[in-house]
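BUG-408 | component: ligand-complex export | severity: low

The export step for pyridoxal-5'-phosphate jobs runs without errors, but we want the raw record kept on the ticket for reference. Input record follows.
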Amino acid sequence: MKTKKQAGSVLSLSTRAIHGNKLYAFKGPVATPIYQTSTYRFESSEDAIRYAKGDPTVYVYTRYHNPTVHDVEEKIALMEGGEAAALFSSGMAAITTAILAVTKPGDEIISTPALYGGTYRWFRDELPKSGMTVKYVHPDHLDQIENLATPKTTIVYFETPTNPTLDLVDIAEVVKRTRRAERKIGRKILIMIDNTFASILNQDPFKYGIDVIVESATKYLGGHSDIIAGVVVGTSDFLKQVRGLAKYHGGCADPFAAYLLTRSLKTFELRVGKQNENALTLAKTLEKHKKVNRVLYPGLPSFPKYHLAKKQMSGFGGMVTIEVKPSKGRSPVEAAARVCDNLKIAVNAMSLGGVETLVSIPVYSSHIFLSDTELKHHGVTPGMIRISVGVEGIEDLIGDFEQALSLA
Ligand SMILES: Cc1ncc(COP(=O)(O)O)c(C=O)c1O
């Protein structure tokens, strides 16, 4: 994958995020203008013909392309080390369009089961209507990919870390097993990762030979809990297919959301770096708290896959999950709810990745409709609280959790 270089060295993530390709531009605005327009004025009617022949400098209609959106796409491609990127109106639009762009009825997908709920339900309820099947491989038995693959296998899809236990999937192993499966079935399989939870600061999937990154830009890339957006990153050829389908499915990004995103990218490295730092300190502190049974955080030596985290992540991320120890006479979920309801700084809300610390109870939110057996299978317990750690002062956050936990 191409990475922007200057004088032989790779530019830093922040430099790529702030400047995109226009490092030496000295004319025009410093900030990206918002092209809040549905359509574009042609210089002459010849422009319509030039566009039809594929001239990328001719803009026609914002569902096809928009300069503000293009600015973000270029920056994200540079940040993630991909040849090209496409921005969408949501993470789900990005995921569904990327998958549908390269599949047809009868095709099969192999996935790990711990997925974002929207993706999991789309796999379960919608893809079969188009004659597609998803087979699941246990993250600790990735050798099964070779057995599950058939000549109809088009995509291997997975997430790591996963929600809410932060369990990890070995990226290098997925790639190794999939490439072996390709040799067995005699065709290319596209490997797609949802990199939302880690983000590019903490995990670089292309380094391991992943083909496509999909991501909810609503989370760490956006980082301020004020936009819904999604992104697909990969080769130019793949992105051409994705854009072709996106024109019909219509999940194009709004120019104003793209502007907010381009603004957010400038502080991405600072924000996520601080979130990593705060999350590690909070996890270490809460691990010693008497009202906490367990802390799940990839950066803690007690984390079941700590060694894998150290191998494949360059930072451990901003997501921490704790299991509350209830006071006598109180159920675990009641105790978790009392903690969430009594936090004064952290906000009880369902998203993640923003500068403000958010908390949610998985059995009341992302995992509400799962049976007890399914919850057990996913390792989710009623006393769990998922924390998306923000950039607030760490002493304030620790104090907030301590006072709320005392009421558990
Ligand atoms: C891991 C993951 N992938 C995808 C999505 C979907 O993104 P969006 O809500 O932007 O459509 C989410 C949303 O929470 C998510 O957590």
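Assignee comment: Attached the raw record above. Residues 90-92, 116, 118, 159, 194, 196-197, 216, 218, 228, 230 surround pyridoxal-5'-phosphate (CB under 6 Å).
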